[in-house]
Amino acid sequence: MTNGNQVKSLTGKKHNFGMVIDVDRCTGCGACMIACAVENNVPPGPVDATDRTGITLMRVYKADNGMDFPDNESVFFPVSCQQCEHHPPCVSVCPQNAVEVDPATGIVGQIPVRCLGCRYCMAACPYHARYFNWWDPVWPEGMERSLNPDVSLRMRGVVEKCNFCFHRLQAAREKAAAEGRDEIKEGEYIPACVESCPTSAMTFGDLLDEGSEVYRLAQSNGSFRILERLGTGPKIYYFSEREWVRNIAEKDPASALKRGATTD
Amino acid sequence: MDRNRNNGTKDIRLVARGVNRMPFGKFLYLLVPWLIILAIGMYAIFLCLAKGLNQTNMDNRFAFGVWIFLDLSIIALGAGAFFTGFLVYILKREELRAVLNSAVVIGFICYSGAILVLMVDVGQPLRAWFTFWHPNIHSMLTEVTFCITCYLVVLSVEYAPIVLRNKKLKEVPAFLAMQYELHRIMPVLAGVGTFLSFFHQGSLGGLFGVLQGHPFAFREGLAIWPTTFFLFIISAAAAGPSFILLTTWIASRVSRKRLVSDNVFALLARISGSLLVVYVMLKSIDTLTWLNRTVPSLGLSGIGFFLWAPFNIWILFAEIIVFGLVPSLFLLFGSGRLRTGWLVASSVMVCCGIVLNRFVMTIQTLSLPTMSFDRFMIYTPSWQEIAAFLFVVAYGVIIYSLSFRYLRLFPQEIEMKVN
User: Fold this and answer.
1) Prediction ipTM score
2) Which among A61, A230, A254 has CB closest to B373?
3) Is the pTM of the predicted complex or chain greater than 0.90?
């Protein structure tokens, strides 16, 4: 099923973390977006920020079947970094190695302290899942006490993106080590978005673990990936029992225009 | 007589012997508008550096904006420097010595201006050295960074002897000796400059050709280089001589002097036209291959990219036919027959075509949706973005004006005056 970064971890076990999102269950509530922002110390946007300049490491898109009422149906796609595993477009373009793939986990990570802010990675990402810090990170007075001490802040002028809450993996590893275990157990490490989803639409785990729920769902008939045709091997899978939803993932964007979609 | 004509110039001791220049006061008066633009541009740059790139209208989708588009354009137009050096020193086309100094100054202005804007464009300018310290050798941007930086050094060294030949500076024996020594290594610098230029012009094309996530820009290619790598080299080499022709004509009109002979204009036109014909042919083959093979292999329709107004099929037609094939034929077949005005008009079209191509690669690529539930977006640059770019234009005009006044940019000028 998965190829590429299936490298053994230090303990010898292979990991390739990924996610399956059941879009039939997603209500588009945005809890994953909020949880992600809070967990990762994303600052509140200034008053002149827009939906094009704010930072939403997880963003929920809405799509529909293009039919008129009463046949119209909608679906929500929570889209974060898709953690591509075959030549991730952002990794090869970064001029100073500020984007790296962790060979032990397959997680594509951003190194903000090394980022020049050239934004070539943002231009390269087909999922628009990378965000630039257009402003200095500022929190309203008192709110800084709610910051997550496990996640470092990013300064103005650098790019950031989802890293599957890597700090949670580190915390899980530390816990396992404290308990004398070499490996973490399934479910011990899940990103904040997965934890917050009220409808349990998101399933996270090791795509190489054949006994895991994420493996089973990713292998199931209804699973699909967005823009799989580009060959970047995203590790976020989506799931739907509705065929038109599955087709959206590969549909030509121009077809939306033909149905009269707006151009801005 | 010359001395009499230059009597009104307070800076006569700096003006080259044997040429006439307008009175110093008039010269300053003409520079005032450009100095104002320079000051406004400096303020805009200060805002961007002090307050951040939130001063621009770029956003997470338009991560590249008008600055990158114009950087790509002026670097292509500045290609006249390397290509003229290559023709004079390597291919021994001595006739082009008449515009070589001017080409070097134009190249220096274009490259230094582009690097200046890039320094404002990146979020963390103080980290620019990181690329040299831990470079990602797989990135086209690394190649661009290395080559452009090295080439600016080459251009500075090429510019130095032109400056040191100034009438006043020449009085210092050390400068004279240095100028002479630098002049001796010019063929080597021309060779190095050509090598570096080939790579960075190509890599600028490669920046977009490798974007597998953007089928509109993505191109197949040879080994690690997408076809845009080669197309950018040829298009820059074609546009460079046209821009030299154009700037020489503008300098001639503004100064009201003949600066080069007509056969130099004709030669530049012929070189530009020949290369542009090759470019148009290769670009057409590339476009047809992309439309009929690359895009369908991704399950998309090539024509679908041109359904998004205002970037409809006209843009492809304008780029290849109106601003490509038409001026290339004018320049190629009209170089010996047409009046200079026609050649200048054709050169303007060539430059517009190259600028349009760079626009398509940067702005159109980012405006198109990649996912079906995505949106088509447009972006309008902020006044700070426009002012910062106009800063470079004003900087270029001022540097060129000063160079024209005090340095010998056109060796044929005296000869033309006598005739």
Assistant:
1) 0.92
2) A61
3) yes
